[in-house]
Amino acid sequence: MAKVGIVMGSKTDRDIVKPAIDMLERLGIDYEVSIISAHRSPEKLREYGLKVEEQGFEVIIAAAGGAAHLPGILARRS
After folding, report:
1. Least CB-packed of 5, 25, 45, 57 within 10 Å?
2. pLDDT band at 71 (very low <50, low <70, confident <90, very high)
3. Domain CATH code at residue 23
4. Any bridge partners for residue 30, and if so which?
């Protein structure tokens, strides 16, 4: 079964990804939520992106409520 990584920029972005989390739970798909700010923790986000395959993720959902830098930076690094 696929493993999904969900990355949000801050705890306050939980409402943005909640529908995705609800769907993954209904479908019985494993997921892991990480909170990594593209602005406050760019190196941590870079490391996350470089280890996506190593961690077994087949899908990444990235969301941020303010600026949309997080998904783009993560896509570039993974």
Report:
1. 25
2. confident
3. 3.40.50.1970
4. 3
